[in-house]
């Protein structure tokens, strides 16, 4: 859809287009920016990594005869004299979805060449990501304080800690890396690198707003993974 | 030249669609939180969790990641490998049931 066209190449929609793409000369996905195709391939491989984590968690949790800690109590917060289940996790979920929405809008405004809106929305996304990581750090320190370790915990099955730290830690790392890149891209947007087509720092590629979409793909993927972690680890 | 202009300005979508999806994601997240809040258990709990999870994942991929508008070649390259993950899940379900069985058998009944 939103890719620069290769001259003389006519894209066909639907399954005919798919057959033409798969059987085409020299390159597949003609007209798709190479960075975007490569980001999708990377995200596919990342999907497999996170799947392996979640599947091993399923296997570990399913094969222990000891009771699994009740996530709704373990991750609950004590606010104003009331125990609210999963409160922090719910807020983290809403923050991440908010940042995903601002990122989607940033991509849209980028393609419309609205430099300032695009830049501010990327900054808002970075702020959301930073809030998320901050709350995750709070959650980790709270649980570590309560005695949760990768090899033991006071709530139930010993495997709980290792899966928790591995899965949320790997996801948090993704969010942190995303925040760093969001800040870099916000700078590049405000500086007008994508309007002028300025070449990047490590590449001879000309600046183009498609880079914002590529960054957006990564950020939405981080949100996507959280949807699965939220369902399987915190709600199940 | 018309051709170069096309090159520079890719098509975008109306802001309304993004706001709609954004709102839907909020509502779905709220529903999945409510599953825990009301402490639904058993089949109802995990079917609701899976339903909301797949709806959210689908909305994010289709509209935020633009897969809905993307060419079929890319969509198929991305979605077919997921069947391998589904197979892996199936294998590991069989595996953890067997492990659980042997653990209960040897820990509590004895070999």
SSE map:
The complex is a heterodimer of chains A (236) and B (111).
Chain A: H1 14-22, H2 34-63, H3 71-74, E1 77-79, E2 82-84, H4 87-111, H5 115-145, H6 159-190, H7 193-196, H8 210-235
Helix pairs in contact in A: 2-6, 2-8, 4-5, 4-8, 5-6, 6-8
Chain B: H1 2-8, H2 15-37, H3 42-64, H4 72-79, H5 81-109
Helix pairs in contact in B: 2-3
Features:
heterodimer; A: 236 residues; mainly alpha; Four Helix Bundle (Hemerythrin (Met), subunit A); two-stranded antiparallel ribbon; 8 helices; 68% helix; globular; B: 111 residues; flat; disordered N terminus
Number of beta-strand segments of chain B: 0
Distance between the amino and carboxyl termini of chain A: 38 Å
Number of strands of chain A: 2
Shape assignment of chain A = globular
Q: Low-confidence parts of chain B lasting 5 or more residues at pLDDT below 50?
A: 1-9
Q: If helices are DSSP runs of H or I spanning 4 or more residues, what is the number of helices of chain B?
A: 5
Q: State the domain count of chain B.
A: 2
Helix/strand-derived category of chain B reads mainly alpha
CATH topology of chain A: Four Helix Bundle (Hemerythrin (Met), subunit A)
Average pLDDT of chain A, rounded to a whole number, is 89
| The number of domains of chain A | 1
Q: Quaternary arrangement of the chains shown?
A: heterodimer
Note poorly predicted spans of chain A. Answer: none
Q: Could you tell me the strand content of chain B as a percent range? A: under 5%
Helix content of chain B: over 70%
Provide a count of the helices of chain A.
8
Q: Work out the strand percent of chain A.
A: under 5%
């Amino acid at each position: 859809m939103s890719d620069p066209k290769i001259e003389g190449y006519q894209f066909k929609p639907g399954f005919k287009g798919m057959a033409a793409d798969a059987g085409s000369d020299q390159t597949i996905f003609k007209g798709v920016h190479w960075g975007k195709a490569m980001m999708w391939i990377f995200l596919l491989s990342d999907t497999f990594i996170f799947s392996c984590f979640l599947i091993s968690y399923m296997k570990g949790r399913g094969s222990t005869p000891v009771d699994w800690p009740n996530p709704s109590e373990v991750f609950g917060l004590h606010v104003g004299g009331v125990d609210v289940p999963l409160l922090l996790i719910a807020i983290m979920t809403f923050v991440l979805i908010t940042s995903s929405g601002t990122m989607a809008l940033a991509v849209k405004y980028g393609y419309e060449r609205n430099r300032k809106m695009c830049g501010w929305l990327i900054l808002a996304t970075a702020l959301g990501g930073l809030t998320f990581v901050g709350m995750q750090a709070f959650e980790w320190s709270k649980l570590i304080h309560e005695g949760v370790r990768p090899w033991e915990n006071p709530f139930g099955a010993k495997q709980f800690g290792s899966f928790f730290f591995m899965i949320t830690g790997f996801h948090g790392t993704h969010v942190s890396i995303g925040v760093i890149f969001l800040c870099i891209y916000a700078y590049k947007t405000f500086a007008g690198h994508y309007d002028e087509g300025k070449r990047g720092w490590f590449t001879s590629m000309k600046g183009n707003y498609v880079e914002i979409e590529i960054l957006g793909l990564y950020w939405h993927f981080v949100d996507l993974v959280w949807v699965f972690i939220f369902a399987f680890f915190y709600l199940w | 030249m018309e051709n170069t202009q096309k090159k520079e300005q890719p098509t975008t979508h109306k802001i309304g669609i993004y706001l709609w999806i954004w709102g839907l994601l909020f509502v779905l997240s709220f529903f999945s939180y409510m599953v825990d809040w009301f402490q639904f258990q058993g089949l109802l709990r995990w079917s609701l969790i899976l339903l909301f999870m797949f709806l959210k994942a689908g909305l994010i991929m289709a509209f935020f990641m633009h897969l809905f508008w993307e060419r079929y070649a890319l969509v198929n390259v991305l979605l077919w490998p997921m069947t391998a993950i589904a197979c892996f899940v199936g294998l590991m379900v069989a595996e953890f049931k067997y492990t659980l069985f042997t653990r209960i058998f040897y820990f509590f009944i004895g070999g």
